[in-house]
């Protein structure tokens, strides 16, 4: 009887995990973007992780390393980091942050997130 209970709990866990993954569309993961213009080089990461047991709330951690370019000379690398709490809108495939109104658009075909015109590609 103990084995049957353990197997039942394992199956319930497995089924709930699969349904949560499908519900969120696989948005969790690490995304990267690299850009450069005449003033700056930047290397950005977005790490999207579920928050607690609520399958619609995610934490988005943004880590940016950037180098200013002054008179053609690349300056030492600087870093900044931001954390946002977002809500997943499954039909629209959008992570929405309420305080600043940021929206992260998820593209399942390209496995990417887009925010303010910058596209981040999922690496894991």
From TrEMBL:
Signal peptide span: 1-24
Keywords: Signal
Protein name: Lipoprotein
Organism from which the protein derives: Mucilaginibacter pedocola
